[in-house]
Amino acid sequence: MIARTWHATATVENADAYAHHFAAEVVPRLKAIAGHRGAWLLRRPAGHQVEFVAITLWDSIETVKQFAGANPDVAIVEPQARAVLTQFDPFVTHYEVASGFTQAS
Fold it and tell me: What are the beta bridge partners of residue 54?
C-alpha cells in the first residue's frame, strides 16, 4: 500500500473553504478510483495560518497514476484550492505503508 502526503496552508478565514473543497470535490473523485483506499485531511493552527496535511492511501503507485497522471510526484492542486490556499507544496511524497491498522467504529 502507498501513502501519498501533501502539505498546504491557508488563512484562518479561508481554512474552512479549503476543508469544504477537499470533502466536496476531492474525496468523491478519489472514491471513484479503483484501488484508492482512503483519505484524511489533517489541520492545525499555525500562527495566523492553518496548516493542512492531506494523506491518501492507494494499492500501488500505478493506482496513484490513475489520479495524478504519468508523473505522480506532482501535486494536483485545482484552481478552487489555489484560490483559498496561501502556500502549497508543488510535489507530494509517497511512502510504502510498512505497518498499521484502523480501529473499527
Answer: 6, 41
Task: Report pTM.
Answer: 0.92
Domain residue spans of the chain: 2-96
Question: Cβ of 63: how many Cβ atoms within 10 Å?
Answer: 19
Predicted confidence band at 6 (pLDDT cuts at 50, 70, 90)?
Answer: very high
The total of other beta-carbon atoms located within 10 Å of residue 55's CB is 14
**What pLDDT score does 100 carry?**
86
Beta-carbon contacts of 45 under 8 Å, excluding residues fewer than 6 positions away, are 12, 51
Q: What is the CATH number of domain 2-96?
A: 3.30.70.100
What confidence tens digit (pLDDT) does each residue in 18-45 have? 999 999 999 999 999 999 999 999 999 9
Cβ-contact 8, 55 below 8 angstroms: no
